[in-house]
Here is the input.
Amino acid sequence: MRITVLAGGIGGARFLQGVRAHARTLPDGDVTAVVNVADDTRMHGLRISPDLDSVMYTLGGAHDAERGWGQAGETWTVSGELKAYGAEPTWFGLGDKDIATHLVRTTMLDAGYPLSRVTEALCTRWNPGVRLIPATDDRLETHVVVDLPGEGQRAIHFQEWWVRHRGNVPTHRFVFVGADAAKPAPGVLDAIAAADVILIAPSNPVVSIAPILAVPGLRDALASASAPVVGVSGIIGGSPVRGMADKCLATIGVECSAAGVGALYGPRADGGLLDGWLVDTADAGLEIPGVRVASAPLWMTDETATAAIVSAALALAA
Ligand code: FO1
Here is the structure.
């Protein structure tokens, strides 16, 4: 069974652990993750791909489960030295091990390799057990239009919004810079066309899933895919499992609920994404016209729990 997953970072990584575990119980399980790259940034001269790295480290068994990003057992020597020099940005934590990943990525990108090839190369070390493909090899960055004290309205990179400000600034909108010129990375359209099931991970719908869908051709590919598309809600009982989906949804005027996000994604029959929408038991009974809704416990407490979520999503797909 070929399973293609649209995923962001931390929530997507945990979900993919469950997809991989479930796929291992199948005779022909094969998983491809199409991962968001709009969080990507360049800092201190290094090209950083947070969502790809969260997925790669998590599936590679190297991640720091508490933080959700970066590697376990990190040291922060270089970061401390950068701070001592006053080298901005000092608000973005770069672990020493993590810096090695960014150095390899930056070297390969500068040598002309596309991000998809860089990701393949990095994954030969980490062996995630699923194929990781960036949504696009082209530049695609989420910028956030905010009001900053004394500066009025301006756009800042998503990482500054997320890490420096923690979203606690008046926020007007998210802009996916480069979206109109971006092309699906090699293998993305095939992974969608050839899938037996397509899953939308319980990632942030606004800044993880939407930027993937903003790549021209991706929405159409999903709409015309022969496989059923099932989403898993990252919102349980009106609050996000983790992260700041509530702030993001408020910015785009969507209710922070499984119903709100399900309606945002919309029924495939009406040009939306979903055939099925899996919600937590706390939200059981919600209905979305044109979408088959099922409920299951959605707390990804460990890999077994997550694998059970995945089998519930696949049952809904069937
Ligand atoms: N998140 C933070 O909250 N603080 C950080 O200092 C930070 C550094 C960082 C470095 C590399 C990386 O790959 C991710 C990092 N993140 C940090 C997480 C990142 O901002 C988020 O994981 C995503 O971009 C949002 O999903």
Notes: The radius of gyration is 19 Å.
